[in-house]
Design goal:
By secondary structure, the chain is α+β, with helices and mostly antiparallel strands. It is 20% helix and 32% strand.
Length: 348
């Protein structure tokens, strides 16, 4: 039996760290659609040593010789990917592996995003590597008035703290969208050995999902992130209960693509969908307000984004390979989809 826990109970348990957005509100127009992007930007660190984080390598005098020139080059590269080479800007952008709010602000100030009023949601996490998740959004078309952060204590490994999961409730066109930005614990030490860590985070996220659906069974929910698990792994199938069809409590929009060998991350020559969109069935079946356009879901892959090794295998061109500087983008591909807005009174 699945137990629904009201939000107030979850808050008293300390899972959620909740606050109202302090961003200045602006007049919001109803968009015809929302472009959604998620990107694991692979160690987006500034060049300043933070004594509270393990970021010494990402300094000018550190092992990786991370200086202003390399930092600015990475920002330019990431902006090129996120804007799809200047062709399309996201209204909602989820990010992971960012060091702090400042690096997100620096990214959104790149010329590719000029003229768009992007706002940022971020909180420093207790992660041992010093990396966080963040959400940037176009305030002209959507407003996030409530944001919470889900904290988990890990049962396995020598680092009990991990990234926070960001939850935000957005409003646009009279419709409500519940957004989760995830970066679940890594597979370091092996998939099976590290699985309890991801199951723990999945369980905590699922408690919040249950509380939302307990209030509104027709809630439109969009989860995105680097789950460090594939669509058919236990954390997503058994805990989140994300399947390929709308007869599941949640729908994994990467299910079929993963089965066909597509993915966002290439591990030893094999592609897999670590980065995923997972949505509630009402977001797919909606006849008013926002509806997920499932056919638009994609792993963003351009020829200039890839590195082909001597055996002819293509990988995302990353910033570093070990201590070697390649000057690339990220070791992950970004993922992209659209939500279309269906006009009508009283969206679901």
């Amino acid at each position: 039996m699945r137990v629904f826990i009201p939000v107030v109970i979850v808050l008293t348990l300390g899972l959620l760290q909740c606050c109202k957005s302090s961003e200045k509100t602006v007049e919001v127009i109803t968009p015809s659609d929302l472009d959604i992007t998620f990107y694991n930007v692979e160690n987006l660190f500034d060049t300043i040593d933070d004594p509270q984080k393990s970021d010494e390598d990402f300094t000018p005098s550190g092992k990786l010789q991370w200086n202003t020139e390399r930092y600015q080059h990475k920002l330019k590269n990431l902006a090129r990917v996120i804007s799809q080479d200047g062709k399309e800007l996201p209204e909602v952008l989820g990010l992971c592996e960012v060091e702090n709010r400042q690096v997100v602000e620096d990214l959104m100030k790149m010329p590719a995003f000029a003229g768009v009023d992007y706002r940022i949601l971020h909180r420093e996490s207790p992660d041992g590597r010093g990396i966080d998740v963040a959400l940037a959004y176009n305030a002209a078309v959507i407003q996030f008035e409530e944001v919470s952060y889900i904290r988990s204590k890990l049962p396995h490994g020598d680092r009990p703290n991990t990234r926070l999961v960001l939850y935000a409730r957005g409003m646009s066109g009279g419709d409500t969208l519940h957004v989760f930005v995830n970066h679940w614990p890594s597979r370091h030490g092996g998939q099976q050995e590290s699985e309890p860590n991801r199951l723990t985070v999945a369980y905590n996220v699922d408690q919040v999902l249950d509380s939302i659906r307990g209030v509104n069974p027709m809630a439109k929910i969009l989860m995105m992130g680097d789950f460090n698990d594939y669509p058919n792994n236990k954390s997503l199938v058994e805990i989140i209960q994300a399947g390929k069809d709308d007869d599941s409590p949640m729908i994994n929009l990467m299910w079929d693509k993963h089965k066909m060998g597509e993915g966002s991350y290439n591990y030893r020559g094999e592609w897999g969908a670590l980065d995923q969109f997972v949505v509630s069935p009402p977001l797919v079946s909606a006849t008013k307000g926002f509806q997920a356009e499932t056919e638009t879901v994609e792993f963003v892959r351009f020829p200039w984004l890839m590195y082909v090794d001597k055996e002819g295998v293509a990988y995302p061109n990353r910033t570093y390979g070990g201590p070697n500087y390649y000057g690339g983008y990220s070791d992950h591909l970004s993922i992209h989809m659209k939500l279309t807005y269906i006009k009508g009174n009283n969206p679901q």
